[in-house]
Amino acid sequence: MEISKKHENKNVDVKVYIDKLRGKIQDYFKKDASGHSIDHLERTLNFALYLQSKEGGDVVVVGISAFIHDIHRIMSNEQNRFVSPKESLPVVEKFLEELDITFDQKQHILYSIEHHEEYSFSDGVKVTDIESKILQDADNLDAIGAMGVIRCFKYGIAHNVIDYDPTVPLYQNKYREEDVDASSIHHINNKLLRLGKFMNTKTAKKIAKKKTKLMKDFIEMYIDEFTCKISEE
Ligand SMILES: [Fe+2]
Ligand SMILES: [Fe+2]
User: Fold this and answer.
1) What value, to the nearest 5°, has the Cα angle with vertex 121 and ends 52 and 74?
2) Number of structural domains found in the chain
3) Whole-structure pTM value
């Protein structure tokens, strides 16, 4: 899908669009049990608007794409298989139908959502437009830190992933998206700890630092507690 850079500025507050979408999205995302709830969308929106204020880009494209980017997760739950963001685009288009946005903005939103999970450590398309970069960063910022840890364990419970498997080493090699992590702790170690470095924007890299440190400390303490190591320090 091609995107155009020529967006007309309609001078509309992005919150007007979000308020229009919120009711419909709340109903749709009630079905979620995988850590991709409406709360994740609200937090992704919040990060996305903050990043847009620092990094630029079309605020309408950034805001709307952040708020409806994970429709494919609900479709995956319903169909009991992985539904890709690309496959979800016809449903995304339905949500966009009643919004007074330009054709270019609509195409751009669909493009950003289609590519939002193609991060630089997987082999997919690397996005170059600031709006898609911001969506990826906002989504990844909510996958790390305290909230990221909770979401990771919630996902694990929903998908029968164990908390920790001490028989599998916590490897430090390059992360491959197709690898199945042995436990939630492995997922935090193998993927989430790396996300900060792979953020697209400078602002997101800065925000990720503290969150990454917290996850490192969490894993360290978890392993100590799991192995009954006692420390008075
Ligand atoms: Fe997603
Ligand atoms: Fe997401």
Assistant:
1) 65
2) 1
3) 0.89
Which ligand has the shortest distance to the CA of 42? 2
Tell me what percent of the chain is helix, strand and coil, each rounded to the nearest 5: 60, 0, 40
List the domain range (segments joined by +) for residue 154: 14-226
Distance in Å, CA 224 to ligand 1 centroid: 33
- Rounded to the nearest angstrom, the distance between the alpha carbon of 218 and the centre of ligand 2 is 22
Ligand closest to the CA atom of residue 143: 2
Tens digit of pLDDT for each residue in 181-218?
A: 899 999 999 999 999 998 999 999 999 999 999 999 99
- Among the bound ligands, the one closest to the CA of 41: 2
**Distance (Å, whole) CA 61 – CA 80:** 30
Neighbours of ion ligand 2 (CB under 5 A): 70, 139
* pLDDT digit string, tens, across residues 36-82: 789 999 999 999 999 999 999 999 999 999 999 999 998 988 898 99
Three-state secondary structure call for residue 188: helix
Indicate which CATH number applies to the domain containing 157. Answer: 1.10.3210.50
